[in-house]
């Protein structure tokens, strides 16, 4: 199997996961925006690509200090926690082997004045909005264009 193509089962799995994450985020008052970034947002993912999500929240600490938040996904294995500036990565693996990088960031991550160069790079590299009731990511995308 080539790395350059996505099997239909993986594509379906990712679409299902995105729907599940979006539905979950819509029930959480502290999650104010969710976006897919990277190769899946650009439609350039391969079978070895992880699924990268940016989650803007008013309570980043809750998602770093506890693991119960990921119960909505079903069984997962926590792979790592890492800090990337203000964004806190929580990488998990689901039973199929797919890794999901949840990047929890404060609402200020989407600030447009001034526009952070790291944030700008992420947005320009591919950003597909899933949940954005306050238009935080829409404003960020407009500023990045």
Known CATH architecture: 2-Layer Sandwich
Count of separate structural domains? 1
Main sheet properties: 6 strands, mixed
Reported by name, the CATH topology is: Beta Polymerase, domain 2
Q: SSE order, as H and E?
A: HEHEHEEEHEH
Q: What characteristic shape results from the CA principal axes?
A: globular
Give the tally of β-strands.
Answer: 6
Radius of gyration: 15 Å
| CA distance, first residue to last residue | 37 Å
* Spatial strand sequence of the major β-sheet: 3-4-5-2-1-6
Q: Given the helix and strand composition, which structural class is it?
A: alpha+beta
Topology (SSEs and partners):
Blueprint: H1 8-26, E1 31-37, H2 39-42, E2 51-57, H3 60-65, E3 77-84, E4 87-93, E5 99-106, H4 117-124, E6 127-131, H5 136-144
Parallel strand pairs: 2-5
Antiparallel strand pairs: 1-2, 1-6, 3-4, 4-5
Structural features, described:
Strand 3 and strand 4 form a beta hairpin. The chain is α+β, with helices and mostly antiparallel strands. The protein has a six-stranded mixed beta sheet, sandwiched between helices. The chain has helices spanning 8-26, 39-42, 60-65, 117-124, 136-144; strands at residues 31-37, 51-57, 77-84, 87-93, 99-106, 127-131. The chain has one domain (8-144): Beta Polymerase, domain 2 (2-Layer Sandwich), CATH 3.30.460.
């Amino acid at each position: 199997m080539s790395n350059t193509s996505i099997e239909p089962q993986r594509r379906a799995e990712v679409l299902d996961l995105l729907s599940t994450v979006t539905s979950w985020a819509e029930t959480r008052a502290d999650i104010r925006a969710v976006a897919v970034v990277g190769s899946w947002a650009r439609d350039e993912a391969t079978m070895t690509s992880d699924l990268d999500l940016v989650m803007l929240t008013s309570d980043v600490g809750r998602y770093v200090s506890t693991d119960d938040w990921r119960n909505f996904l079903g069984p997962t294995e926590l792979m790592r926690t890492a800090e990337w500036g203000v964004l806190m990565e929580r990488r998990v693996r689901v039973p199929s082997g797919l890794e999901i990088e949840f990047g929890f960031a404060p609402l200020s991550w989407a600030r447009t004045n001034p526009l952070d160069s790291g944030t700008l790079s992420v947005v320009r590299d591919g950003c597909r909005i899933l949940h954005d009731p306050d238009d935080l990511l829409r404003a960020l995308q407009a500023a990045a264009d």
